[in-house]
Amino acid sequence: MSSDSTRRRERKCISCGINISGTSAAKFDCPDCGYVIYRCATCRKQSTLYECPDCGFTGP
């Protein structure tokens, strides 16, 4: 199984961990390493911190 397939199944908010499939979540690349990050609308609105699991970059 490729890592792309695995990432597609693991669409969870990086901050709170909820499943974001079918929601208005944001998808973007980590500014430092390019890892795909998903954030739910609630965590985005509250500016909850997140940490990239690949490089450790933190952001609001």
Describe the structure.
The protein has 60 residues and is α+β, with helices and mostly antiparallel strands. It has one domain. The chain has 2 helices and 4 strands, in the order H-E-E-H-E-E. The strands form 2 sheets. Strands 1-2 form a two-stranded antiparallel ribbon. The chain starts with a helix and ends with a strand. The relative contact order is 0.23. The model has no long low-confidence stretch (mean pLDDT 88).
Secondary-structure topology with pairs:
Blueprint: H1 3-9, E1 26-29, E2 36-39, H2 41-45, E3 50-51, E4 58-59
Antiparallel strand pairs: 1-2, 3-4
List keywords for this structure.
alpha+beta, two-stranded antiparallel ribbon, 2 helices, globular
TL;DR of this structure?
By secondary structure, this protein is an alpha+beta fold. The chain is 20% helix and 20% strand. Strand 3 (50-51) and strand 4 (58-59) form a beta hairpin.
- How widely separated are the two ends? 32 Å
General form: globular
What is the average of the pLDDT values?
Answer: 88
Tell me how many strands there are.
Answer: 4
Task: Classify the helix fraction into a percent range.
Answer: 10-25%
Order of helices and strands: HEEHEE
Strand order of the largest sheet: 1-2
Query: Structural class from helices and strands?
Result: alpha+beta
